[in-house]
Amino acid sequence: xxxxxxxxxISYELTNSQTSSREAAPSSSTNGQAGGFVEGSILRITMRNxxxxxxxxxxxxxxxxxIVGANGTGKSSIVCAICLGLAGKTAVLGRGDKVGxxxxxxxxxxxxxxxxxxxxxxxxxxxxxxxxxxxxxWMLNKKHTSQKAVEEAVKELxxxxxxLCQFLPQEKVGEFAKMSKIELLEATEKSVGPPEMYxxxxxxxxxxxxxxxxxxxxxxxxxxxxxxxxRNERNKLDVERYYMKKRHLDRIQMLEKKKPWVEYETARKxxxxxxxxxxxMKKKLKSLKEAQEPxxxxxxxxxxxxxxxxxxxxxxxxxxxxxxQKCKQKHDQLEYRNKEVDDIRQDLSLKQTxxxxxxxxxxxxxxxxKDLQKELQNMGSMEDVTPxxxxxxxxxxxxxxxxxxxxxxxxDLRRDKDEAFGELNxxxxxxxxLDDMMKVxxxxxxxxxxxxYTALKxxxxxxxRFEGNVYEPMMLVINVRDSRHxxxxxxxxxxxxxxxxxxxxxxxxxxxxxxxxxxxxxxVNTVIAPEESCSRRPPxxxxxxxxxxxxxxxxxELFDAPEEVMSYLCYQYKVxxxxxGTEKTKSMIEMVIRELQMRMIYTAEEKYTVKKSNYxxxxxxxxxxxxxxxxxxxxxxxxERRQLEEQLRAAQRxxxxxxxxxxxxxxxxxxxxxxxxxxxxxxxxxxxxKGKKRxxxxxxxxxxxxxxxxxxxxxxxxxxxxxxxxxIAAVNNKKVAIMEEYLGHMQSMLSYLLLIKYSSSxxxxxxxxxxxxxxxxxxxxxxDQVKNNLLTTCKTLMRRxxxxxxxxxxxxxxxxxxxxxxxxxxxxxDEIDAMLNEEKTRAECFTGLSDAVVEEYNRRxxxxxxxxxxxxxxxNALTTYRQNIAEAKERWHLNLKQLVDQIxxxxxxxxxxxxxxxxxxxxxxxxxxxxxxxxxxxxxxRSSTQLHELTPHHQSGGERSVSTMLYLMSLQELNRCxxxxxxxxxxxxxxxxxxxVFDIVVRTACGVNTSQYFxxxxxxxxxxxxxxxxxxxxxxxxxxxxxxxxxxxKAFIRRAKRRQIP
Length: 1062
Prior knowledge:
single chain, alpha+beta, 11% strand, single-stranded DNA binding, nucleus
């Protein structure tokens, strides 16, 4: 027949009170009437060229709005219009990602207009969508604006279309159960909590994150600081010894600086004395010359008178000259003897100095011996460590013997293990040949059912977690005795059960499903064996009575399976009562069905199912061809496999026992090795101690030998002084003889002079004076030479002292800083030398010290001070953050706990009304980790189970929908948002739960203190209870829809009544 011409599709939305709704709807030009609407409720939704709609207006009520219509009519389009019209993102809807896709096909633009109730004047939001550039134009109360301004206006009314607790589109229903506890808490805070609750939570998370960072920083700095302190504490003694040595070295340096100044001062004082003596001698020489001047004049007068007797005078003068020469020789001899006396006295002085030095060295050596003995004593008044070393050596030998004994035992165990491994390998090779057949089955399982295979691997790794027997998928544990009969088993047992795990205990199955389905999100099947075994249940009739019809066996006898698996198959699929026949059975099948009246039978190639009608008592049979077997064709001798498994377990136990014994021996060896290392370290320490002690003893012995040597080299100063005095006396005797000869020559010279006429008495006086003057001149010359030598020495000592003290050239005064330091040191050379030797001796006792250790110590001290300051700053900051956290937590936690308690109270009441159980609690593994806080939903739909957390995998789809819906209803009376949207959440619910949930929704959403509620559904059950406060919006769509002005509600009801079946 000819098809009618296609008409352009026109879509409208009709409600059961369309006229009254339009009349009661507040106008956009007025402030509006409350009429039960709360601030931000939707008064009107207008759609033009939007998804399925050409043009439509929706006027929802203030309470529960039931939007009902067949699939595809446009119910969810209203949800999309609400979301996009209120500046929501397309990602919220889970449909198209571009807003242009929401414009009706064939149109270049579309629009959504939503009117929201507001006490100060209704708010009209208009969004016009352009398909071409995928852009939108926004208007607020018919005035163009930006999307940001719309978002701000929507936010002020507490509308959150991105919050699943307020706006749950059809495509996002499943995601609610997938929300983590943390995400659910945040969504709940935003939806029903005070505005500041979520802000406080965010502050707490920020503070806690910074607190955690500060705690880590403080911990790291404290650890580093403690390690630095420990390192410095270890070096502190060396640093103290270093500074002690440095003080000695500084004192030595200062003494060495003062010593040249003392030498210079000594030489200067001696120079001053020589100068004074020289000046006195100069004055005396001058006086002598002045006294001699008249005599010289008289001599010149006499000489003029003595011209005549010149020859005689010459002879006398020659005699006088000769006598004078001899006097000079004797004077020189006398000077030589004086010098000899000085040398003798110098030798005595050297001996005295040598003896003084020896005494000083003895004192210094005694002091060094005393310091070394003190250091030896500081090492501990320990007894000789040799017995301890011998004891350590004895214990080391004992440990070596034990290690050798253990190594022998280990060798024996290795041989035993090799033999056990040989047996184990033989058994494993046999098992591998059997496993190869099983591997074929496992490969098929992995190829067809990867999730089941993954769960199988997990089960094999975690069998010890289960108390009862747990069996792998049936296709792996069923062993068909004859591969030709595998097709019967596979045809009889559904594939879902062939890949199912079999459990003996209910709690084991729940534990398994929690892990593989909830945690790993694997799709697997599980079954539980009957409590009472059915594996040996007898058939309804003996096989002998069936053999005349060609039957040769029951299904149960064709395969082997574990006890619980066989029990389940007998209980569930009656394998103990399903016979298997041959071609003979097929040839007489009608008689078999008629006479035996068995519900299921197998022939050689077909399966027959027999049913009896409940109305006519007629017998109806159906048959189907048997497909070739896919999974059970591989057969394994079960008895051999069990025996092999027992042998393998025994061999593994033996290997395990050997391994345990070897591990115990290795542990003993490790303990012995540790003890061996400890003893060797102790031995090394004792040896070092003994070596150091021996070194100190050797050094003390050497010093004592040196001391004895010095004491033996004592100088007998008394004898030397007596010897010196004797030598000086001998020299003096010689000087006396020389002086006598000298005086004799002087008398001879005077006798010559007396022979001269006119100069008897005067000449004697002149001669004496001349001799005295000559002697004074000689003494003066000698003193002048001594002065010059001392002056040179002073200059040299001054220059050396200036160089040592780093003085500028020309500077002669001691610097002030050195003058103060010099005042605390001795003032004599002997005392300075004694102190120098003492300080050098003390400094030599400090060995093994370096500047690097001190520099490292000082650098680390500075680091410690800086770290202490940084640690104090970080600790103060941490204290501040903790105070902020305590204040924020006080503001947030108590209110949140009260809110969750209110939600839990309503949620539990709703579940109790459904004869189920549910609870909501605030969950946190650590109260201080605020980013880990979450809301946990736990439900129980059967009395035999425990409360389980709501997850995407543990509960069925209908159970998740019920839980989601009841949680949202628990928020309804607490909600500060103006409306809530839930789209087709009742899909998947069983009729009983759907009716219960609907009653709860009506009762809660139509209450006094509730906001607007949109409930979208494609179907409703019969005889539901409705409320007067409900608004039911029926959505129709199609080519034969009437325009709104032609729609008659009364005519529709009248026709519906006529069509009712009596």
